[in-house]
Amino acid sequence: MASNSSGDESGRHQTARHRLSVIAGHLQRPSDHNAALLAVECKAQGSKPNVNTSDRGEGKTVPRRRQEIMKWNGWGYSDSKFLFNKKGQAEFTGKRYRLSGMIIPGLKDWMEGTFGANLQHKTQATPVLNTSAVQPPTLNEAFVEELKSTGIPFSHEAEDRVFRAHGHCLHEIFALREGKIGRIPDMVVWPNCHNDVVKIVELACKHNVCLIPYGGGTSVSSALECPPEETRSIVSLDTSQMNRILWIDEKNLTAHVESGIVGQDLERLLNESGYCTGHEPDSMEFSSLGGWVATRASGMKKNIYGNIEDLVVHIKMVTPRGVIEKSCQGPRMSTGPDIHHFILGSEGTLGVVTEVTIKIRPMPEYQKYGSVVFPNFEQGVACLREVARQRCAPASIRLMDNEQFKFGHALKPQVSSIFTSFLDGLKKFYITKFKGFDPNRLCVATLLFEGARERVLQHEKQVYDIAAKFGGLAAGEDNGQRGYMLTFVIAYLRDLGMDYYVIGESFETSVPWDRVLDICRNVKARIVRECKDKGVQFPPLSTCRVTQTYDAGACVYFYFAFNYRGLSDPVHVYEQVEHAAREEILANGGSLSHHHGVGKLRKEWMRETVSNVGIGMLKSVKDYVDPNNIFGNRNLL
Amino acid sequence: MLNSDPMLKKRDDFEDILEERRNTSDLRYALRCYTPALYKGLTPCTVSELKTMVLQSDQLLYVINQVSKETGTATNEIQSEAEAILEEMAHRLQLSTIRFFAFMLSKIFKTLFRSICVNEEGIQRVSRPDRETQNEETWLTLIRSQLQQAIQEHPVVLLPSHRSYMDFLLMSYILYTYDLALPVIAAGMDFMGMKIVGEMLRMSGAFFIRRSFGGDKLYWTVFSEYVKIMLKNGFAPVEFFLEGTRSRTAKSLTPKLGLLNIVMDPFLKGEVFDVSLVPVSISYERILEEALYARELLGVPKPKESTSGLIKARKILSENYGSIHVYFGQPVSARSLAEGRVDRSQFNLTPRHIPRRPSEGIQDFVNDSAFRLVRSQEENMVLKPWVLLAALLLQNQAAGNKLGVLVEDLTEQAVWLRDLSRQFGAFLHWPDHVPPSRVVSSSLSLHRSLVRVSEGTVQLNLEPGFPPPAMTPEEELLSKAVVVLSCASYRNQVLHVFIRAALLASAVQSVAGSRKQEIFNTFSFLWNMFSNEFILRPGAEVQDFEEACYLLVKSAVLQIHQQEVLVTDRGHRTLAFLTSILDPFVQGYQMVCRFLCEEATESLTEKQFVPAVRKFFIKHLLTGGLKYVEVLSSDLQKNALAALLRLGAVQKLRGGADEGTLKVNTVMVNSLEDTLAADSEAARCSALIQRRRPSKQTIGATRRVQSSERSDPIGRLNGRASCCPGAGTKESHQNATAA
C-alpha cells in the first residue's frame, strides 16, 4: 500500500495533498483547483476570529463558542443549509461542500411526491435562542470557586449551555426549533489537556457535581440529555479544546491524540504527515475521537481500517476512582477481560476519555468510487453476501434500496461538470439494452476502493465480476460518489424537511446475513403500517441501505420520515413509530444498535439485549468506578 | 364482539352468483378472460420450479442430512424419497381445468341449488370506515375489495368451514367468478383413491396430504416446506380446513393445529411481514350428505352400492337443496393476533431452517388463534329459519309429544326464537318481508324428508313411510335416529349462538341459591365438561361467563347484582329453552359416565368404546330410561370420552398389550355423573314448570331467591375476570346489570 514515493519528503507532501483532495471528494467542494482551493479554505477557517480559542486553535474546526460557526437548532455549519429560492428551486448555501451554491432541481418534486409536502406550507423555526426561556444555572459555588483557581475556562452563558444539552435526535432538534428548552447543563468547562480533566473530575467528586462529557454533540441516542430528575449542578465537560495530536510513531504506525479532536481535523492533520486513520463515520465532520471510543463508533471504511475497537491501541480515561490505562502498547494481550471494553461503549457513564493511541496508515495512493445497479434489492443483498463470503469487500460497499436510490437521484445538481449524468446514461442503458430493469425495483450499490492503483483496479474487477453474477451492472463513479454525499447532507436535508412539516430520522442495526432481507422488508413495512395506524395522513418515506458487511452479517441503516400535517403531537407519533420499528428490529433478530449506541433512547431494551447477568456486570463496574454517580448522564443502564 | 353495528352491516348485500349463470352462457363464462390481482411480493414461478425450490430448501436439505445420519441411508436415496413424497403431494394447478370445472359446476349448481349467495362486502367492496378521515388518494391508490386487497398486500390463507365435499370446489368456483387468485387447497389423501377425480382435483389446485404421518420427519418437512414456500412467494392463497375434516354434525369441530402452525411459521420467523387469515363460512340450507352423515354417526352401514343406490344418487340431482350462503370474513392479520402475545425474538438464536418443536408459548398462541378463527367462522355462518324450527321440533319430540305441534304454535315459537336469537347476535337470514307462516311452511317443505305435516300439525318424520317390513325394535330405533340426527345437524348450527347462555342457564337452574359465585362455579364445571363438544376458547371461561351474563341481562332473563343472580318472571321461557337445548348433551355425557361405571370391563379399549356405548344406549332408549335419541351420535360419545380423558377421569394406557385400553377412575366418573344428573334433573324440572305455565303471561315481580350467605365471591371472580382481555371488571357487571 505504500506509495511509490514514500520516504521522499516532497513526494510525501504530494501524497498529502492528494489525500486532501480525496477527502474533499466526499466532504468538500469540487477539487478541480485542488490545492489552491483547499489552501484558501484552510486559511479562511484559520483566519476566522476565534476569539476564545487559545493559541493552539490554529487549523482547528471547533471553537469554544460553537455558536460562532454552527447552528444552535439544526445540523452543522450556520452558512450551509438547504432552502427553496424565490423560483421555488432547492439550493444548498455556503461554500463548504461540493453541493454548495448549487441548484438541485429534482428535490422539490421529490419532496412533494414523496411526502405530499407543499412549499406553501412552511413552519418557521424560532430564529434566535430566547435566553429568557432558559432556566438560570444551579451553580455549586464551592466547585465554581475552586475551578476558577485552576484557570480552566468555563461559562454559564445560556447559549453555551443550551448548545451542550442536546444531540441530534429528532425530538431534541424539534424542541429547539420550537424554542422549548428543558433541563440543561448549569455550566460548561473546557479543559485543555488530560491534567485539566483530572482536576475537574477531582473537584466534581469533592463537591458532588454531576459531570456530562461532551465531544462533538452528534449523538442520536438522547445521550446528552440532562436527566430531568438530576438535582445537583450539572457541568458539561466539553473536550473540544483537547484537540492536539501529541505524537506520531511512524515505526509502529500509531498516533497519540487528545480525545476532543474531531474527525475532519484528525484526518487533515495526519494527512499532512502522509497518514490517515481511515476512520470515517458519517458524522466525522463534527464527532470526536473520545466520542467514538465512548460509543463504539464505526467508520464507513471499516473494511480496510476496522471499527474503533480495532483501531485503538491504548486509551486513557479519567474516572472518579482515578485514571485507567494499560501499562504498555502491546498489540494484543491475554490479561483477562480487556479493560478497553469497559471503556468502549461506556457512553460517558464511567469517566472521560482524554487521550487515545490510535493506529494510523500511510495515505492510500489511489481512491476510486464506483456503483453497481441491481435489478432488485434481493439480488443486491445476495451480491454483498457473496462479496463478504469471499472477503473482498472494498473500503466501503453500500446497497441502497429503490427509494433511497430515488432519493439520491433527487439530489442531482442542475449544472455540473463533474456529475456526468449517470441516470441519463442509465436510462439509455435500460431502454436500449437492459429493459429487464424495473425502475421501481432496481437498487444501487455504491463502492469506494482504496489502495495502490494496480490493486484497486484489480479489486474493482473482482467485485464487478461478482456483481455481474447477480445481475449487477456497473453504473459509473459519479453515482457512487453521490451516494456517499447523501450521507453527509442528510442531516442538512432534515432541517429543510422540518421547514415544511416533514420530520424524520435514521436508525440502524446489525443482523445476521440470513435475516437481512427479512429485517429490511419487515421494518420498512412496520413503519408504514404504524404511520397509518397513528393517523399520519401521507405514506411515509421508509427506506434502508445495507451499509456495512461483516463475515457473519451486515449493518442496516434505515431512513424514516413523514409529513406531519394534521397531527397534534408529531414528535410523539414519531417516537411511537420509531419505538415500534425498534421492536420490529429486535423481533427480527437485529441488534439494539450497531454504532449509534444506546444512550437513554434505547436503554429500555438493554436488559433483554445483554441478559440480567450482563446488566449486573455492567452495574457492578459502574458502582465500583463511580459510586456517587458523578458521571450522571444515566445512559445505558 | 357484542356490538350490533357490524351485524347490521353484515346482513345486507349478499349477491347470488347463480343469477347471472342462469341468464348468460356458461361456456362463455368458463372461457372468459381471467386476470386476478396478485400478491405484490410475488415471485412468479411455475409448478415445477416450485418443486425445485422445495427440494432445494435449507430446511429439507438439513432434514435429509439428519435422516441420512440417523438411518445410514445415502442422502441421494433420501432425496429421491423426498421427491417421491412431493410428487404424490403436489398440485398441478391449471387454468384449463378450472375452466372445465367452472363450466361443469355451473350446470350442477344450477340444478341443485336455488342460489349461491356471497357477501359482496367481504369479497368485493372496500370497507375501511376508520380511514374515512384520511386522504383516500394517497393511502388507497385503488379502490379494492377486502379480499383482493388482502391478497395483494400479504400472503393469504383461506379458512373455510367444512360441512361438505362441495366446499372446496365451491370456494374455487367463487374465487374464479370474482376474478380473484385461485387457491391451492390442502386435501386429505382419501380423494386420491378416485383416480381420475383425484387428478382432476390436483389440476384444480388441490394438493394431497396423508391423514397421519406421526413421526415421519421427512414427510413433515416436505409438506411444511411445500406449503410455506407457496405462501411466502405468494404463489397462491393457501386454503385448508381448520376443522380438519367435514363436520358430520354441523357443529364446528375443535380446530386442528398442524397446518395453522405451518402457515403461521413464516410470519413468526419474520420471513413475511404478515399473513392474512380469512375465515370463510359456508352454510348450506340443506346439506347434500345429510342422511349419509347421520348413518355414519350411528354406525349404520351405508346403503349398498347397487343399481337402486345409483338411481337414488341420481335422485340427488332432482332434489332442491335450497341456497348456499358464503360469507368471507374480515381478514385477520397474524401479526395483530400475535401482538403482545408472542416474543418473536425467540427464533433469534438458532438458524431458522433447523426444525424445532414450537415452544409452549407458540403452541398456546396458535391454539388460541385457531379457536378465534373457528369462532368467527361460526359467527359468520348464515342461519336459515329451518335451523330454528329444527331446534323447536326436536325439543317438542324429546318432550314426548307424539301428536306433533300445531303449525300456528310452531310459527309463534319460531318468531319468538327468531327474536331471541337476533338478540343474541345470530346471523339469521329470515326474510322479514314474508309473513312468518310462509317462512315456516316453505322451510318445512324444503325439508319434507325430515318432517311430516298433516292436519295442521307438524312433527318429525319418524314413522317409516310404508308399512314396516318386520323391523326389530332396534332397527326401528335406528331408522328414527337417522331422522333425529339429521334434524339435530340443523339445530346444531344455532348452538354456537346460545351455548354460553345455555351453560349459564343450566348453572342457574341447577344451583339451589342465587349466589353468583356458586353459579359461576357450576358454569365453570359445565364449561369445562363440554369444551370438547363446543367451541369454547381455552382460557376464555371468565370471558364467556361475562358474555353469557351480558346476553341474559340484555334479554331481560336475569338480573345480576353484586353477588346475586335473579331470574325474572319473563325469563323462564328463555331459560327453559336454553336448558333444554343443552340437555341432550348433559344427559348423553351423564350416560356415558354411567356406562363407564356400570358396564366398562377391565379390557375395554378405545376402539370398543363407541360400539359398547351404543349398545348400552340402545338398551336404555328401548326401555325408556333415556329420552334423547340423539345421544346415539358417535360424535357425542367420542367427545364425552375425550373430555373424560382430558379431565383425568379416564386414562388411556399406552404401550404393551394394553395399548389403547381405557382405565376408568370410577370414583371420579361417578361423581361427574352425579353432578351431570343433578343438572339434567334441574333442567327437566324447569322445562316442566315452563310447560305448565302459559308463556304469554307475565306475572308479578321478579322472583327473588334469597341468598343464604354473603361472602364476597364476586370480588374473587372479578379478580379473575380482570386478567382476561375484554372481560369486564366490577363496573362492567354493573353496566351489564344496568343495561
Q: What coarse outline of chain B follows from CA principal-axis ratios? A: globular
Under CATH at level 1, the class of the domain at 46-126 and 144-306 and 321-380 in chain B stands as: Alpha Beta
Note poorly predicted spans of chain B.
Answer: 1-6, 125-144, 691-739
What is the structural class of chain B?
Answer: alpha/beta
Which superfamily, in CATH terms, is the homologous superfamily of the domain at 46-126 and 144-306 and 321-380 in chain B? Glycerol-3-phosphate (1)-acyltransferase
Q: Which range does the strand content of chain B fall in?
A: 5-15%
CATH topology tier name of the domain at 245-362 in chain A: Uridine Diphospho-n-acetylenolpyruvylglucosamine Reductase, domain 3
CATH architecture classification of the domain at 46-126 and 144-306 and 321-380 in chain B: 3-Layer(aba) Sandwich
| C-alpha-based Rg of chain A, rounded | 24 Å
CATH topology of the domain at 46-126 and 144-306 and 321-380 in chain B, by name, is: Glycerol-3-phosphate (1)-acyltransferase
Q: Please state the oligomeric state of the protein chains shown.
A: heterodimer
State the major sheet of chain A: 7 strands, antiparallel
CATH class of the domain at 245-362 in chain A: Alpha Beta
EC number (chain A): 2.5.1.26
Cofactor (chain A): FAD
Pfam families (chain A): FAD-oxidase_C, FAD_binding_4
Domain FAD-binding PCMH-type (chain A): 181-363
Brief digest:
Chain A: Its main location: membrane. Chain A is built from 20 helices and 21 strands.
What does this structure look like?
The complex is a heterodimer of chains A (637) and B (739). The model of chain A is unreliable at 1-8 and 28-57 (pLDDT under 50). By secondary structure, chain A is α+β, with helices and mostly antiparallel strands. Chain A is built from 20 helices and 21 strands. In chain A, strands 18-15-17-16-20-21-19 form a 7-stranded antiparallel sheet, sandwiched between helices. In chain A, strand 1 (82-84) and strand 2 form a beta hairpin. Among the domains of chain A are: 66-115, 2-Layer Sandwich (Double Stranded RNA Binding Domain); 131-240, Uridine Diphospho-n-acetylenolpyruvylglucosamine Reductase, domain 2; 245-362, Uridine Diphospho-n-acetylenolpyruvylglucosamine Reductase, domain 3 (2-Layer Sandwich); 501-596, GMP Synthetase, Chain A, domain 3 (2-Layer Sandwich), CATH 3.30.300.330. Chain A is globular and about 75 Å long. In chain B, helix 7 packs across helix 11, helix 15 (290-298) packs across helix 22 and helix 22 crosses helix 25 (571-598). In chain B, strands 1, 2, 3, 4, 5, 6, 7, 8 and 9 form a 9-stranded mixed sheet that branches. A 3-stranded antiparallel sheet of chain B has the order 10-12-11. Chain B contains 30 helices and 16 strands. By secondary structure, chain B is an alpha/beta fold. The chains are: A alpha+beta (637), B alpha/beta (739). Chain A binds chain B through residues 116, 514-515, 518-519, 521-522, 525-526, 532, 535, 537-539, 586-589, 608, and chain B through 133-135, 138-139, 270-271, 273-274, 343-345, 347-348, 351-352.
